[in-house]
Design a protein that fits this description.
Blueprint (H helix, E strand, L loop, with lengths): L15 H29 L10 E3 L6 E3 H17 L4 E4 L14 E9 L1 H6 L5 E8 L2 E9 L4 E6 L4 E4 L5 E3 L12 E4 L5 H14 L5 E3 L4 H10 L4 E5 L3 H13 L3 E3 L12 E5 L1 H14 L8
Parallel strand pairs: 3-4, 10-11, 10-12
Antiparallel strand pairs: 1-2, 4-5, 5-6, 6-7, 7-8, 8-9, 12-14, 13-14
Helix pairs in contact: 1-2, 5-6
């Protein structure tokens, strides 16, 4: 598995001040979209159910997309067209190709609602994620927990922080746990039944070796929870770049050991993402190796 490292030979941006500028813009974009998502949910799901035409499905019947997902991404794309019109964009709903850019180009990797199933059901735990990637590596990013109105963000080399609804700014540090047997680990499951079955078999071998498993339903939020110490680790097969581009940086800047696929590898390839507090990272990777988890689980 590739390990998260600093970008090499990036031509622009290349300074901490530029990364910080990108972080601030990521926060602005993610918070604007989160406000829209927060306002639109009671309108789209009035009287307990979605209005006609508000929900469709994508590759699997269990994989929903709502009109608010599309609106959220369009809002972010519109703001970027005004603020940084020459940058590239890769969005979950609108597409794009992060591998097609010239060296040094900033690509904004956008998940307009991460945790759409939670959003659909009205469960807390859905987020807007915006990451800035240069030469295949995240350099800035923001994740907004929509229901909790909390913003997580990071710039490369500058640490990661959360801003709470009251404006309090907190420096994020991951857990100091050093025993895998009492580690709280999150994971997620694919929409396709065949990959889900393989993920479930792996889980039966992993679960007896740790404290417990959490399945919260939004990868970007899981990564932020590792950054804040609410989780000790997280692993999942088949993430797309928009799931981890911002959250992986936030976790890494909080001290986590982060292994992610190349940004150009799509979720269908089924590669493994692992993010863990440093005290348990080696033991968790050993466990994952023993059960065969590093083997990709294609969709």
């Amino acid at each position: 598995m590739p390990e998260y490292t600093e970008p090499e030979n990036a031509t622009a941006p290349s300074t901490s001040a530029e990364y910080e500028q990108l972080r601030r813009l990521a926060v602005e974009l993610a918070e604007a979209a989160a406000a829209h998502v927060r306002a639109r949910r009671p309108e789209v799901f009035a009287d307990g159910g979605p209005v006609e035409g508000a929900v469709a499905t994508k590759g699997h019947a269990t994989d929903p997309v709502t009109v608010v997902d599309t609106e959220s991404e369009q809002l972010i794309r519109g703001l970027l067209a005004e603020r940084r019109p020459t940058d590239a964009i890769l969005g979950e709903e609108g597409g794009g190709d992060v591998g097609a850019t010239t060296p040094g180009t900033v690509t904004w990797v956008v998940d307009p609602i991460d945790g759409t199933v939670n959003f659909l059901y009205g469960l807390p735990g859905y987020a807007v994620s915006v990451g800035a990637v240069v030469d295949g590596k995240p350099v800035a990013g923001a994740v907004v927990d929509v229901a909790a109105a909390t913003t997580y963000s990071a710039a490369l080399g500058a640490g990661s922080h959360a801003v709470r609804p009251d404006g309090t700014r907190v420096t994020l540090r991951c857990s100091t746990e050093d025993s895998l047997s009492v580690a709280l680990v999150a994971t997620g499951f694919a929409y396709g039944s065949a990959r889900r079955a393989r993920q479930a078999r792996l889980l039966t071998e992993i679960l007896p070796q740790i404290r417990d498993i959490r399945r919260l339903g939004a990868a970007a939020m899981d990564l932020c929870h590792v950054a804040s110490g609410r989780l000790d680790a997280y692993y999942e097969h088949g993430l797309n770049a928009w799931d981890w581009a911002a959250g992986a940086l936030i976790a890494a800047e909080a001290g986590a050991v982060v292994h992610v696929p190349p940004v150009t590898v799509g979720g269908a390839a089924g590669e493994l993402t692992v993010v863990a507090a440093p005290g348990i990272a080696e033991d968790l990777n050993d466990l994952l190796d023993r059960v065969g988890a590093p083997t990709a689980l294609p969709d």
